[in-house]
TrEMBL record:
GO terms for molecular function: FAD binding; oxidoreductase activity, acting on the CH-CH group of donors, NAD or NADP as acceptor. NCBIfam families: GG-red-SF. Residues 6-308 form the FAD-binding domain. The lineage of its organism: Bacteria, Pseudomonadati, Bacteroidota, Cytophagia, Cytophagales. Coiled coil: none annotated. This is Geranylgeranyl reductase family protein. Pfam families: FAD_binding_3 (PF01494). It comes from Hymenobacter metallilatus.
Amino acid sequence: MAATPEYDVLIVGAGPAGTACALGLAGSGLRVGLLDKAAFPRDKVCGDAIPGPTLRALARLNPRYAQELRELTQPHRTDVSCSRLVSPRGRELSVQWQAPAFNSPRLHFDEALLVLVRRHTATEVLENSPVKTLAATSVGVMVTLADGSTLSTRLVIGCDGANSAVGRCLVPHPLNRRRHCAAVRAYYQGVADAPETTSDFLFLRRYRAGYCWVFPVGNGLYNVGFGMLSEDIAREKVDLKQVLNELLATHPTLEPRFRQARRVSPLQGFGLPLGGARRPLTGFRVLLCGDAAALIDPLQGHGIDKAVISGMLAAEQARRCCQTQDFSPAFLQQYAQAVHQRLGRELRFRYRIMRLLARVPWLVEAAFRASQWAWLRRWLVRVVG
Ligand SMILES: Cc1cc2nc3c(=O)[nH]c(=O)nc-3n(C[C@H](O)[C@H](O)[C@H](O)COP(=O)(O)OP(=O)(O)OC[C@H]3O[C@@H](n4cnc5c(N)ncnc54)[C@H](O)[C@@H]3O)c2cc1C
């Protein structure tokens, strides 16, 4: 490896975590590279619900980022103000949200984030660049791409999602099915009784620790999916695609809505590494963010906001490392502490609630019944929402 690595910081993965990290390094004067195996715009299997804290975090970095993101996603999003929840026994509950949130297909949302990076930073963006292996040396990290070419960096930030190559090579950690979900989703048109301002969540008697969703994403398109805990999928040998198709054809709430609907994309699946466990987020000259760090909300399956927040925290740590020339494992631990402080407590709490609801299914029904009292509903929405 050359004496001086060509990058100070190399961010692997240009999803929400990687782009937020690049934005966090704007104006740092560091040589920053952001590489992704895909060419953008690229699809990402997701529910496409952009949690409110995502834009709030970006706005704290620079108010223009949130404003420009709204403008860029305008043709491909819908603002959501209401959630409709259906209990396992069919009881319905509507929740009006005060905080602004929107749904937008990741094909367009992630492209908009990358536009912000190109507009506001001097980051070198490398698309079509799949990372194959990484190896730490005393002066940095050597990154080998699938075509055999290499890149060198003083610090690498793994933002490459649920199947992270960075994590596999530099911070290996076994898959824990108790803390992992899998889900499938497809896009539909022509869904009946589905206002563009309302996201639907359906909880099912047969499949605990999971739910089915119907999320409007604008332009008459709906993101429809189903996911559950990987431990249960393996134990009960569940075929998620088959279950979703059956639900749309037979579930009393869904069947009438999907009678005339048309699927307009393949039905695809992907993993969700859940947060709430203390797992290593750093290694030798490496930080992990977003799904690569397993930071998804165990209760709702939301991870975009956690990806953005952890990406920004990693950017702060990268600045500190380069300023002090300290890349030691002990110094990098500051990042892990910051993530645990900012997100860890909430994720642990929500993981415990998810396990409790899975173990004691009548609690879900009881919560729906209890929500007829406004004060209790407000409290439940605060806890679970
Ligand atoms: C079915 C499903 C539904 C979901 N629904 C929601 C939802 O509605 N709302 C929500 O907030 N969250 C949702 N999530 C979670 C959300 O998708 C993730 O938490 C979020 O995408 C994490 O962002 P990230 O930047 O960490 O990773 P990603 O968005 O996965 O981005 C990783 C990037 O790294 C690139 N990459 C991967 N490997 C390599 C490699 N070897 N070399 C180079 N580049 C590489 C990929 O191309 C990708 O661009 C859902 C997840 C699933 C699976």
